[in-house]
Each structure stands twice: as C-alpha cells, then as structure tokens.
Specification:
Layout (H helix, E strand, L loop, with lengths): L1 H6 L18 H6 L5 H13 L5 H11 L6 E5 L2 E5 L9 H16 L6 E6 L3 H10 L5 E8 L5 H9 L4 E6 L3 H13 L1 H6 L1 E4 L8 H16 L10 E5 L4 H11 L7 E5 L4 H8 L23 H7 L4 H7 E5 L2 H15 L5 H11 L8 E5 L7 H8 L21 E3 L3 H11 L4
Length: 425
C-alpha cells in the first residue's frame, strides 16, 4: 500500500487497486452508530494501511485530516444531506487531500529526496491541495489547470499557501492537463530521475477517508430524529468517480444501503456507459457545476474492477443519471422554496438524481460536496435574492499577488519544467 500512496500511478498507465478488499470487523458495523467520524475513519483506514503504517501514525493522520465537522442535515421528509464542505477551503476535497498530505509526509519523513506531487484541476482541487500541502518540507506541488478556469485571485491563493506550491496555467483543456500528468507517470526516464506522486483521486489514498464517510452517514441516518431503518439510496455528484468508487468499496466490505447513484452533469461519459456499455469520450462542456466537468472519468476502471468486469453486476449496485443546467437551476430554486435548504449546483445534481428515481418515496441521502457560498453569484441569481455572500476566494493571501506560470498543453513542456525545478537539465 505504501508504494500505491507514494508512486500514485503505476508505470504501465493503470491504477492501483487492492488484490482483495480487507475485511471490516463485524462489531464495527454493529457499533458505528455510536462512533465519531474520527473513530470510524481510524478503523476503516487501519484495515487498508495497518500493515504499512503504525496505528498511532494512522490515528494522527485521521485526526488532523478530519478536524472539522461533517453534519448530517435533514432537507425534507426522508431526504438528507451529508455536508462535506466545512473544511478550510469549502469543498469535500479537503478530506482526501489532507489525509493524503499526512500520509506522504509520514512516508517522506526520512527520505532526503524531494517528492514532486502533480495534480490536474479545474480549480477547487488545486486550492484544497495547496491548503493541505502548503509549507510541507521535502515536497513540491505542481498544480496544472486549464486556461480560463481559475481566476488570478484563486491562483494567488494557491501560490500564497507556501513556497513549495507551483500553480501552472496550461493553454488547453482539463483533458490536456490530465494527459500531461499521466504521461509523466508513464515516463520511465523521468521517474528514475524525479520522485513523483499525484494528489488527484487517481491516488488510491484519496479514497480511503472518503470510504469512512459512507459508514458514518449510515450510522447517523440510523440515529436521526426519525431513524431510517430501511435501505436508503445515496446520490453522489460524480465527475472523476472517486467518491462513487469509495462508496462501492464500502458496500463490498459491509455497508448496508440501497443503490449508489452516480449523478452526472452533461459531461456524462459514465451515465452513457452505464446505459450503453460503451465508453465514448466527448469534448468538455462547461456547466454550472464545474467540479464535475470531467468527460473522461479516471476512476471508471476501478468501478469495473470492483464489479469483476461485469457491467450487469455493476448495474445491480450502482445506477446513474444525467442532470443538465436547466434541471440544476430548477432543483436549486425548488429546494430553496419548498424546504429552505440552499444547495450548491453540484449538490443540486445529486438531489435531482434522487428525484428522478422511480421510487421517489424511498429514503435518500446526498453528499453535499461544496459550500453554497462558493457559487453565491449563481444561487443568488436563481433564487432572485442576495441570500449568500460570495466567499469563494476568502482564503487569506497575506497581501501576495503572485502570478501562475504558463505551459503549452504538451508533455515535453511539463517534463522540461519538472527537470528544471529538480536541477536536472
């Protein structure tokens, strides 16, 4: 597992996955309703990492990563939201990136070499990664994002997180950024020279704390004011499919729930695959839910591996839906007016997916993945009132106004850049 954490991606261009999933103690499933999130995450993390990391180290990493509240909120009758956005940057990615940073710090503590962490993003992942890794000794972080997707202020925020953070604007799309990162991990010559790791959800370690969220949610649902005893469905905003993969792993090691629903925006390669059995990429379409503008979901091979390569088996545990911008707008407006709950566009996609089910009376849970205030301008316009202040960039920058560097959308450009930063030209 330590190799999967540090190397992140194998040289053959595939993805790391356990040969078999670990067994979760039966007593844990029975008692999780009485356990805190940290206690649950310690148990689930330990079954994956216990052979490679000391238990006290795992506890320290879990406690640091999950140092903020993750409340279960009742939206309406039999509808709940698990709010994952109360971390330092207001998005669910704080959970995985903080956990990964702790692991990499532990692994690299006694290594004299610099660790180079690569990440591709359309924005919020970069801020979460910068927050988690900023100032970490022995680690340089390179955040690649497409031209026009990140404001100058957001780039400044990333850069101001620490001198080890490098924001790089790529004159291409998110697929170009992902291909550049993937090419770096397939380059044997580079990997023999530069120590590489990734902070995207392609790194299996990102999924480990997310798996704990499903058990925590099930325990809180059972302990709610009107306890949910029957199987409930979980709708997940789905871009790179990391959270959906974590949820399916949770089911396979003991989670009791109904369907997992992969809720997509119109960049819906996953939904089309679930319906047709054919993976067909398409150009990226910019939507009201930009964190999910991922037409080439990296974790789809992991989902298929969990299903043993059997699409029918995958369909028996996971369903999918597509929600366009018009439906996002309608869902935000109706949810606010009828329940008073303010959902950001990504969470609204999950709520809409629940509403699209045939059995609308079945209990449902959504994972709320971003703070509404990060989309304040969109939500205020939809609702027709200035309900939210826009704090999407309210992370201190200490007066710094640094500029991101720029790269052509080619792997040779990235390789030259990485070698120059590691004094190997």
């Amino acid at each position: 597992m330590q190799e999967a954490v540090t190397a992140s991606l194998p040289a053959d261009g595939g993805l790391y996955m356990p040969l078999s999933l670990p067994k979760i103690p039966a007593a844990f499933v029975h008692n999780m309703g009485d356990m805190s999130l940290r206690e649950i995450a310690y148990v689930t993390s330990n079954v994956f990492l216990g052979e490679d990391f000391d238990s006290s180290e795992i506890k320290r990493i879990v406690d640091n990563a999950l140092s903020f509240d993750i409340p279960l909120v009742e939206i309406s009758e039999n509808r709940f939201a698990l709010e994952l956005f109360h971390g330092p940057t207001g998005v669910f990615k704080d959970i995985g990136t903080r956990f990964l940073a702790g692991l990499l710090e532990a692994v690299n503590r006694n290594d004299s070499r610099k660790l180079n962490v690569l990440v591709s993003t359309t924005g919020n992942t970069g801020v979460a990664v910068a927050s988690a890794f900023g100032g970490m000794k022995g680690v340089n972080v390179y955040i690649l994002y497409p031209y026009g997707t990140v404001s100058k202020k957001t780039a400044s925020i990333m850069l101001a997180s620490g001198g080890n953070i490098h924001a790089i604007e790529v004159s291409g799309g998110i697929d170009d950024c992902k291909k550049m990162v993937s090419s770096a991990f397939r380059d044997k010559e580079l990997r023999e020279t530069v120590m590489l790791s990734s902070a995207n959800s392609t790194n299996f370690a990102r999924l480990i704390p997310q798996l704990a969220l499903f058990f925590y949610a099930a325990g809180r649902m059972a302990n709610s004011v009107k306890p949910i005893r029957q199987p409930f469905d979980i709708a997940l905003p789905s871009g790179n499919l990391g959270m959906l993969t974590a949820g399916l792993m949770a089911k396979h090691i003991g989670l009791k729930c109904g369907q997992l629903i992969g809720a997509c925006n119109v960049n819906n390669t996953f939904d089309r695959y679930m319906k047709s059995g054919v993976v067909e990429s398409a150009p990226t379409i910019r939507t009201l839910a930009p964190l999910m503008d991922m037409p080439d979901p990296s974790n789809l091979p992991r989902l298929m591996a969990l299903a043993g390569g059997d699409l029918q088996k995958l369909r028996s545990e996971v369903s999918s839906a597509t929600v366009d911008d018009d439906m996002i707008v309608k869902t935000i407006r109706q949810t606010a007016l009828t329940t008073g709950y303010i959902a950001d566009p990504h969470t609204a996609i999950a709520i809409a997916a629940l509403n699209l089910r045939d059995d609308k009376l079945r209990p449902g849970l959504v994972f709320a993945t971003a703070a509404p205030s990060k989309s304040a301008h969109i939500i205020n316009e939809i609702i027709g009132a200035e309900l939210l202040a826009d704090d999407s960039d309210q992370i201190p920058v200490n007066g710094l106004r640094q500029r991101a560097e720029r790269l052509a959308p080619t792997y040779p450009a990235l390789k030259k850049y990485l070698l120059s930063h590691n004094n190997n030209l």
